[in-house]
């Protein structure tokens, strides 16, 4: 597919003058255009770029009933020369298709995804924020638009790509609660997929944690609640002495693109990285002995989010305030690559 | 709330003449009207009954991204005198609210639900099939209509009640596969809720089972795969000799209304009923010794669905063909109560 194959319908009057780019929320101001692509009659149709506008669906569309939906999160940046940059975009497309397979949603060809995304970013190029810490958050999503009250896969789907100029996902220090009762994912379930239902399932326990003064939940395995898994919106890294530890991915844990980039950057910076199961008891023991130096989350929306403290079994544990934490070193390294302030030895950065 | 408080907008021309009531599919022909009720500004607004028509939503509506949705399944019947009958409708409303709590969706007041449902059935009364084995399938559902790409609960929701004159859910004999790898629900998860995401999560393993010649999957616990849980669209009953066994409900298993009605009817018919955990090995041993007499599923859509055979570890097991199986006895008892062909000592039947 070529860029010229995409149908384009431009907005009559841009909304951009109404946007305060110095005070951007996360993901709630939307750019002028969106990409829409329908799957029907057994194939993906020609994508259309059109003004950001409502979607109309039959009340029996399976998205409303059976949660057959998946999404991705990506970011576009501008460098000092004004070029548009993406970070490992093919990884998002690949993961979208992994999620699609598990949720019985048809695979989206890489060329439709990449060509469509690039064209959308050309058209809404002015919407990419340049202020440090801001970016254009990109939300590709696919859902069942086919109809019927039979609990079986739909025969029609939609892919949309919407974008939202965004500021930080978390404001201020992040405190987390290590979960002992609720669980995010089952063995043999869909935890590794960016499936819609994985997120709504976290709302209630997260709300309980927020009521207790925490920002997020760190999920543990559903069987023993003894192993650290992920934080729902982020993978989790734990630094004990000078070793950085993160759980291996599994069918319960999302294969985070920020996560694997951080592992690579940390290893190449000479940091001792261990990808292995880590128990809550190990973390508690490290906190008590003083060897627990840092915890941080890593994800596209949050980038790297240092954790100031955590709660477990009605007790709070503070993380030490370090002068030069790994979290901030690694955050600088990855954002410098993303925004073209540093060399990119990995070929991760894609200039449009 | 009174019936007269509901706003009504009638269809200009009914579609009913286009429907072949002798050949009804399940859940894909829709009645003339639907009920719609919006939750915004912290409260449920006045419900509206209007022609069955498309729903329009912002692309950032959280239903598309985070699977914040729940539903119910109910049926309306006509008796010989032409009265409209519901079966334990308040139980559906209560379960909808249980699901709502877990998915951080606001509670729907019982009077909005019941008054709205009754008025909808008055208006579309001609859509209730009278043919044996057919009924008006009722689908109440609630979903997040509020906007934003932040993974947190929405602030606006919709309740809809749509109806579909329907025939049988399963056609022919049902063969099931006892699952050993995939899982439907986690401990501490949302398996007990009728949450949308629970259903899409089952599509892939179910598709694999269908490719092997089965109709449904019988889910086992995600940790050991040793305990029988439920079938996704049905709870499961197993008859060993003259004892009927079904798994206790839990945070992983749906508290089925047909399930608990069958338990009650069976007990009152003098059948030995055990609500207890049942292992796959016990079922296999019973199949091998000949003491496994019946297996059947129970749910609103499927009513009682006798299972003809099951697969486990690449081996198929046939259930015996009995002359007067409990499944059919109990199915007759429950449908006779539902359709006013028998006394209802329980007060389950609700005449409109």
From TrEMBL, chains A, B:
The keyword Transferase applies. SUPFAM superfamilies: D-aminoacid aminotransferase-like PLP-dependent enzymes (SSF56752). Pathway: Amino-acid biosynthesis; L-isoleucine biosynthesis; L-isoleucine from 2-oxobutanoate: step 4/4; Amino-acid biosynthesis; L-valine biosynthesis; L-valine from pyruvate: step 4/4; Amino-acid biosynthesis; L-leucine biosynthesis; L-leucine from 3-methyl-2-oxobutanoate: step 4/4. It comes from the Bacteria. Its EC number is 2.6.1.42. One of its GO terms (molecular function) is L-isoleucine-2-oxoglutarate transaminase activity. The modification N6-(pyridoxal phosphate)lysine is found at residue 194. GO terms for biological process: isoleucine biosynthetic process; L-leucine biosynthetic process; L-valine biosynthetic process. Belongs to the class-IV pyridoxal-phosphate-dependent aminotransferase family. PANTHER family: BRANCHED-CHAIN-AMINO-ACID AMINOTRANSFERASE (PTHR11825:SF44), SUBGROUP IIII AMINOTRANSFERASE (PTHR11825). This is Branched-chain-amino-acid aminotransferase. It comes from Tenacibaculum todarodis.
């Amino acid at each position: 597919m070529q860029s010229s194959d995409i149908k384009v319908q431009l907005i009559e009057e841009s909304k951009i003058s109404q946007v305060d780019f110095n005070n951007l929320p996360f993901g709630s101001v939307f750019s002028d255009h969106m990409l829409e692509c329908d799957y029907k009659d057994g194939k993906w149709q020609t994508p259309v770029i059109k003004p950001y506008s409502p979607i109309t669906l039959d009340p029996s569309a399976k998205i409303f009933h059976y949660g057959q939906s998946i999404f991705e999160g990506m970011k576009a940046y501008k460098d000092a020369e004004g070029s548009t940059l993406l970070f490992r975009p093919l990884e998002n497309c690949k993961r979208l298709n992994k999620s699609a397979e598990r949720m019985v949603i048809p695979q989206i060809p890489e060329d439709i995804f990449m060509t469509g995304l690039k064209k959308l970013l050309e058209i809404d190029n002015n919407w990419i924020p340049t202020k440090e810490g801001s970016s254009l958050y990109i939300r590709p999503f696919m859902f069942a638009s086919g109809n019927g009250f039979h609990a079986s896969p739909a025969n029609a789907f939609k892919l949309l790509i919407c974008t939202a100029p965004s500021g930080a996902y978390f404001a201020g220090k992040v405190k987390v609660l290590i979960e002992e009762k609720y669980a995010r994912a089952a063995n043999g379930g869909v935890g590794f997929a960016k499936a819609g239902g994985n997120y709504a399932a976290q709302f209630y326990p997260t709300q309980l944690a927020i009521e207790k003064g925490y920002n997020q939940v760190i999920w543990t395995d559903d069987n023993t609640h003894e192993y650290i898994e992920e934080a729902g919106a982020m993978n989790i890294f734990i630094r004990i002495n000078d070793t950085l530890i993160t759980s291996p991915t599994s069918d319960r844990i999302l294969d985070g693109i920020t996560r694997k980039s951080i592992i690579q950057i940390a290893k190449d910076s000479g940091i001792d990285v261990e990808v292995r199961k880590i128990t809550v008891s190990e973390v508690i023991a490290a906190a008590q002995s003083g060897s627990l130096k840092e915890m941080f989350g890593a994800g596209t929306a949050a980038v790297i989010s240092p954790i100031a403290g955590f709660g477990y079994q009605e007790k709070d544990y503070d993380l030490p305030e370090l002068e030069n934490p790994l979290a901030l070193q690694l955050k600088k390294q990855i954002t410098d690559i993303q925004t073209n302030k540093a060399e990119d030895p990995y070929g991760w950065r894609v200039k449009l």
